[in-house]
Amino acid sequence: MNRQHSTSSRGGWKRFRTSVTAFSLAVGAFATPALAAGGFVSATASSFDAPTPPSMAIDGNNATRWSANGAGQWIRGDMGAVKPLNGLDIAWFRGNERINLFDVATSTNGTTFTRVFVGISSGKSTAFERVTFPTVNARYVRVTFYGSTQTTWGSITDMAALAGPTVPEPEPNPNPNPQPEPEPEPNPEPEPNPEPTPSQDRFGVKMLYPTKAGGEQWFLADNATSDNRFDPQNSISRNSDGSWKMKNSKVRMSVFTSTGYSASKIPTYDRDVLASRGYMQAANDWRNIEMTGFVKVNSVSDVTDNFAWYARGGKHNDNHSGCEGSSYKGSLHYDGRVRWQKETWHVSYNQASYKPGTSALRGRWVGFKSVMRNTKVNGKDAVRLEMYLNENADKVTWKKVYDMVDSGTWGGNASHCGGSVNAMPITWGGPIAVFRWDSANDVDFKWLSVREIPAEQ
Ligand SMILES: [Ca+2]
C-alpha cells in the first residue's frame, strides 16, 4: 500500500467514494480516549506552506494548522514508538465549508504503509472528526489529501491518535479496573425532558432530571472505602445510622467516571480545542450532570465558608499552568447563602452574587444538588447552572435556590489556557466530580450521587 499518496486526484472522487463503505467515518461520542498530547511526538509532510508547518497539526492548538497545495500531499505523525492504534481524530481547517477526500495509512517503520481508512470529511464541522479502524500496531500515521469541494489546498488544524484496546498504561492509574454497578438500575426515561421528572434514585432521593440513556452514574457505595471510583482523600467512617462521617477541615472527595482518571490521557488543555471536542479526557467525562449529597454539619470554624459540589475539570493543581482545574462550583454556605462560582483555571475565579438559600446549616440534615447542563443562547453554546435544596431532608421536597446561564459574558481568563475568548463558558466535560468543603471539621454525609443527564439543548 506504499506510495498511495502519489495517486493522482483526477477521477479520485468517484473512485475513492466507492471504497468508503468498507470503513467507518464516525462523528460524535466515543469511548476510547486519545493518547497524550495528541499521541504524536513529531510530524513531517510532503510539503507545506511556510507559515503552516506540519508541527502545527499536532500542537493541540486549533488556531494553527498544516497546509499544502495539491492532490496527493500528505502529513505524517510519529508516535515515537510502535503502539496499538484504532483511530485518528482529524480537525480540518475550514472543515465546516469544505468536504475533504483523504486516506489514512499506518506504518511501523516509516517506509511500508498500509491504508486503514479512505473517505471524506463531513464538510460540516471544524471540530475533531473521528475515523476508526480495527486495531493495528503502528508508529507512523499518514493522512493523504486528494482534493476538496472548495480548494486544491489540503489543510489540517490538528490530529490526535487513538490508543487501541491493548495499550499499556503509561503511568499508574488510580482506577485500573472500574467495577460494574453492583446492581442493575431501573431503566431511566430515555427521552430528554427539560421539565423535572418525578422519579427516585437508588436511595429513594427524587431525581430532578432523568439519567441520560446509557449515561455515566455513580452512587456512594456501602463499601465506599474500597470503591475505586471514589477517592475521599481523607479517612471516613460509618455512623450507626448508615451515614458517613468526615472529620477534616479541608475535604475534596473525588468521583471518577467509569473510565477512571489519568492525566496522561488528556491530550490538550487548549480551551478552544476542549470546547470543540466537548471533553477533557474522554467522551464520557462528567459534563451535563445532576450532583446530589446530603450533609449534616456538626462543627464549623467559619460559617461564611461552604460546601461546593463541582465538576467540568480534572485535578486542581498547578500542573499544566493550572489548566486542568476548570470547574463550575455550586456553593452552599454554612450560613445558608448560595452562589455559583466559575473557575476558568486553577486558580482564576469569578463569583455570581449570593442568594438566600436556607437558614444556618449546623445541626440538621440538608440535601443539596448542583445541576449543570449545556444549552444554547442565541445559537451559541452556553451553560445553565441550577442549585436545589431539600431543607427537611425528606428526599422529595426540593426547592430551586439558584438558576443562571453562563452565555459567555461572565468573567473568565481563558486566554491563559489558549482560549480565544476570555469569558467563554466551560462547555466541556472533565474526568472528576468533587464534593468539597472547608472549615467544617465534623460533617456527616449520605446519599451522594453523580448522574449524567441530557443537555438542555
Ligand atoms: Ca494546530
Q: Extract low-pLDDT stretches.
A: 1-34, 167-174, 180-198
Shape estimate: elongated
Radius of gyration: 24 Å
Which range best describes the helical content: under 10%, 10-25%, 25-40%, 40-55%, 55-70% or over 70%? under 10%
H-E order: HEEEEEEEEEEEEEEEHEEEEEEEEEEE
| Terminal Cα span | 45 Å
User: Pairing-aware structural class of the strands and helices?
Assistant: mainly beta
Beta content comes to 35-45%
Ligand names: calcium ion
* Quaternary structure classification: single chain
Largest sheet: 8 strands, antiparallel
Number of helical regions: 2
Overall pLDDT level: 86
* Counted beta strands: 26
Features:
457 residues; mainly beta; 8-stranded antiparallel beta sheet; 2 helices; 26 strands; 3% helix; 41% strand; disordered N terminus; binds calcium ion
Summarize the structure.
This protein has 457 residues and is mainly β.
Report on the structure:
The protein is mostly beta strands. Helices cover 3% and strands 41% of the residues. It has helices at residues 12-17, 271-277; strands at 24-26, 42-45, 66-69, 74-92, 100-107, 114-120, 129-148, 153-163, 199-200, 206-207, 217-219, 230-231, 236-238, 244-246, 250-256, 289-299, 306-313, 327-333, 337-345, 348-351, 355-356, 365-377, 380-390, 399-406, 432-438, 442-452. The strands form 4 sheets. Strands 1, 2, 3, 4, 5, 6, 7 and 8 form an 8-stranded antiparallel sheet that branches. Strands 11, 13, 14, 16, 22, 23, 24 and 26 form an 8-stranded antiparallel sheet that branches. Strands 12, 15, 17, 18, 19, 20, 21 and 25 form an 8-stranded antiparallel sheet that branches. The radius of gyration is 24 Å and the shape is elongated. The relative contact order is 0.15. Calcium ion (CA) binds next to strand 8. The site of calcium ion has 9 residues, from strand 8.
